[in-house]
Amino acid sequence: MKIRIIVFCIFISLFAPAVFSQEPQYGLKFNSNTYEPEMRTGLNLSPDDYLSFSDGFSMAFNAKFHFKDIHNYGYIFRIINEKGNSIDLIMGDINVVFSMLSGDIVCSNTLAEVDMIPEQWMPIRLNIDIGNEELEIKIGKYVKKWNTPEIRKFCDVKIMFGKTDYLKKQAIDVPDMTIKDLEIRDMSKKLQYSWKLSKHTSGGVYDDVKYYFAKCENPNWVLDYNGTWEKRITFTTGISPYLTYDFDKNIVTVADQRSFYIFTVKDNLFEKHTVNKKLSYKMSSNQMIYNPLDSGFYAYNLIKEDSAKEFVRFNLDKREWGATTVHEHTTDYRHHNRYFSPKYNRLYIFGGYGHLKYKGGVFIYDVKDKTWSKTVLKGDSIAPRYLGGMGEIDEDHLLLFGGYGSETGDQALQPQFYYDSYIINLKTMEAKKIWTLENPLENFVVSNSLVVDSKNKCFYALGFPSMKYNSHISLYKFSLEKPEYEIMADQIPIKFKDVFSYVDLFYDVSDKKLIAATVSPIADTTSNISIYSLAFPPLKNSDLYQSETKETNISLFILPLLFFIFLLSALYFVWRKRKNINTEQHQILDEKTEFPVPHTGVNMVRILPKKSIILFGGFQVVDKQGIDITSDFKPLLKNLFLLIFLHTIKNGKGISFTRLKDILWFDKSEESANNNRGVALSKIRQILDNVGVISFNKKGIYWSVEFGDDVYCDYYEALILMEKIKGNDVTISDIKRLLSIVSAGELLPNLQTEWIDAFKSDFSNELVDLILQLIRQKNIVFSDSLLIEMANALFIHDPLNEDALKLKCSVSVKMGKNGLARNAYNAFVKEYAVLFGTEYKYSFEQVIS
């Protein structure tokens, strides 16, 4: 087996086409004048203090300008001294303007000679030579110099790019630009600061030399395009539509019985065409391919092994399908894998499922001869299956991975998940197994198509659990050499309902992006199509962010450091000895009030974002202007809205009118209740129009609600983070973000009705279990302060949680805060006695032991 893998990897390295980019793009793209002023981007290299250069400095960076039809005026950078004098580089409507203001205008030049080429990187360098009183700007090959004694005033400076928020020098004009590789050197050319603008933190970026922090407002990090799926479009079709990808024109095409949809990924252009001549059979599986030989789209009808099969083209000009046979049968080959070979002019179909049977073998349609045939692969046996993935290695070799099926093909006889990988030779129709993956912690199936990166000996698939309806898709990167994988990027939500859903993955060669497409049923007759893109190569969440702590080369000063540690230890020992004499009598006020009761976190001012709906700590709604409009929701309106919203998140389809009537209008007739519902929903819509895009939908008997991307909900974000943390890619930043949300308070604490109790208890139980699971993991090291935050969150959602008590008390004692630990214990014991009518059985000493 090892020899086979080695031979295969050598083969694909030598002969497979290398179309994949190697390095991810990076930089900081500025939100420019097309955005509202408060959403524009500003980069401040000196947020806390002035940068000091006694002899002067040089600043260099690369910039790319994205010219649009609108004006591109704005500040590329501003250098401001203590007196408010400035050196500015400004993008004008046509040319670049460079100026220096020191009370009066010292210099101001329109640099008309600079050749500004859109979408191309251009080096820019500024030299400030204080000793020689010289100022120089270089843009590409253009150089301009000035001699002025005023330059001596720029020893201590603030340096800002884009939006400027500094005293009288505020500016909101921002050009549409991207910058990267920002460096500052002293006059001896020694590197002082280096911001690559690649990895970053949530609020800015550290430089690579001194770990000096530059603050960024409204950042748009180019690197994040490789780690965050961008939702391009969502639209509705008939049930079980066909979907395929035209890699020549980079378009995703979708077909149902009534319409033919075309989405051009590059231009984000969506077209919907009415079909004049429909397929005469029921569309029950994804059976459409793109033929690059004639640039045509073909539907094929594979029902049963021994029945008639069809292969017809869609005439895009006439909007007509070719002639087909009328029937009402459903296919036996749902979720099969297919591949069209331009070299052989053949369609190959592998596996599938229907009528309690998993399928094996290969169907082949020869386009030239217009004949169907079936064959069994030679070589290693592949068990019957569906929901696997297939991708092209080269024109003669395919890769097949994963799926769900059984050795006999019978659904009743020990069906299982498969994690094996095969190479299929189209010349010989022979299959060779490469490796089998050990069963993961959570079972998953994969997208219909795989993307094979032969140059880097790996392949990509979208993986997701097939046993859940409300679920998430993750991007898996598998090694071709050995059974290993890692999870990349963030997740994509999906509502998966087996044969009525579909997931596919494509590679856009021209723009070097992965394209993900999902099909989810939303009713008995309709489906939702969502299309996403991700820059290639994909990155993990950990690849995007810098560490919040500086990494230091300790070998440079090991002896002084050891001496310093020894000195601190001695001083600490003396301090602790004195402090412990009368700890209980000398607790300072801060220690008494930091954690007054177990279920109370650190006091904080809660700043709510615009266009938000808040559920933790109490129901709150904030409109587009940042105004709290919660009072507009009278009790009935609030209950109706929350009933529909919470049920939509829980089951994906919402709540039936019958259930609404039973809860809100149980004493009214159906007609009266329906009228009340209509009036109440109308009022809710009027209120929510001031918040953002929020729509109520009725599908069958169910009412549901859908939020636009611009509306924020803390409860929804918490659920997303919890699902993400449960996966393999756990990050401290995600945990902190979750804690910051749920620490605002209980879920809807002021709403006391019977129907809400299940939602509250389900969420609390899930959250508590997740936090306790995190605490018990051996591979994650949490700081003491973060453990205290976890304990506080546990107390908020489970006030008498004994694990939280033990954690908070033991960590507080470890931190030297004995009084805090004792206060937390006393508050817990008191509340325990009130609720249970008996004393808590464990002493303080037992809790912290």
TrEMBL record:
SUPFAM superfamilies the UniProt entry points to: Galactose oxidase, central domain
Segment forming the signal sequence: 1-21
Transmembrane segment boundaries: 554-575
InterPro entries, alphabetized: AfsR-DnrI-RedD_regulator, Gal_Oxase/kelch_b-propeller, Kelch-typ_b-propeller
Xref: Gene3D superfamilies: Kelch-type beta propeller
Domain of life: Bacteria
The entry's keywords: Membrane, Signal, Transmembrane, Transmembrane helix
PANTHER family for the chain: TRANSCRIPTIONAL REGULATOR REDD (PTHR35807:SF1), TRANSCRIPTIONAL REGULATOR REDD-RELATED (PTHR35807)
Protein name: Galactose oxidase
Native organism: Dysgonomonas termitidis
